[in-house]
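As promised in the previous annual report, we have extended the structural survey to additional targets. Below is the entry for Polyprenyl synthetase family protein.
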Amino acid sequence: MTTGGRLVDLVRSRLDEFLDARASILAAVSGDALTMGDFSRDLLRFGKRYRARFCYWGWQAVQGTDAQDWFGDDSRRDLPAVVGAASALELFHAAALVHDDLIDASDTRRGQPAVHRRFEAEHRDRRFVGDAERFGTSAGILLGDLLLVWSDELFAESLEQLADRGNARAARAEFNRMRTDVTAGQYLDVVAEAAWPHVDERDEVATALNVITYKSAKYSIEAPLAIGASLGGASLAQMAALREFGLPLGIAFQLRDDLLGVFGDSEVTGKPAGDDLIEGKRTVLIALARAELPVSAKRTVDELLGDPELDGDQVQALQETIRASGAVERTERMIAEHVDRALDALDGAPLTADARDALGRLAESISVRTS
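The corresponding structure token record, generated without further manual editing, is:
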């Protein structure tokens, strides 16, 4: 089994153990509360574990010598702490997904009903009184909050297992900064969807890039790397190299997401085709398209983007308009440029060779993914 496969298994096991312990607490509160645990477990069952992987390789990049069996060497006493921290990042990501789906009024996540829609169905199936949609929204907010609480609990438990207390404090500082960055970034995304008529067209691409930097790029790759490296006691030079790799790769990661949100295969992405168009996402892709469109076509895009009643023909028309603008090719070039910047940062970086190889492979897989 590959290192990535073994890590995924360890993270899955740690999450199951953690959720089992919390289920007993929920059961003591009420049998009704167990639904929150069940939905959490379902949400965490899927995913590529990118954040967990980057956390692990951030730690491995600054620890030990190359070509060791990092999972079989009992002397690696900090490994349980690293696996726990990586698992906490997966809990945090799950919380972000729940809240993001609520903000976007998304119906699906990974091919399944979004959590708040599942709570709506629970309301109807159990014949509760009141409005099912409001119940779903309220319960979804609470579940997202609970996952945030749990991510902090698991992270704190994991830091207690770390031998070096200075490294634990450094990792905690990175974790705290990540949470502020992504929350502020999510707010910037909400602002971008509401304030776009007041943004100078010359600033649209830069504004959209700032949104994805804080909403996604940092917390998806840069922050997990920095947290893992902090757990291992990274030097300033090592941390700088990982950040120089992680940030451009995180931007490439989100730019690929933006393309998939408009053109992705729904059977692969688990989201409806053109979902970002229906949700009205003011992405870099849209900003690049608007910069090249004639006034009439730009007006049409602005009128249709974010209309929840968009039908298949209208989605297809928007897709064709975006393609015709050249925005897809420009976004692909930006992805390639950012991946190249990330890979250049690894060249000669003061990191273990095994980690440089693994991070390079992850960069390539992120740049060409289809979901």
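The two ends are 23 Å apart (CA to CA). The chain has a mean pLDDT of 93. These points will be discussed at the next consortium meeting with the crystallography subgroup.
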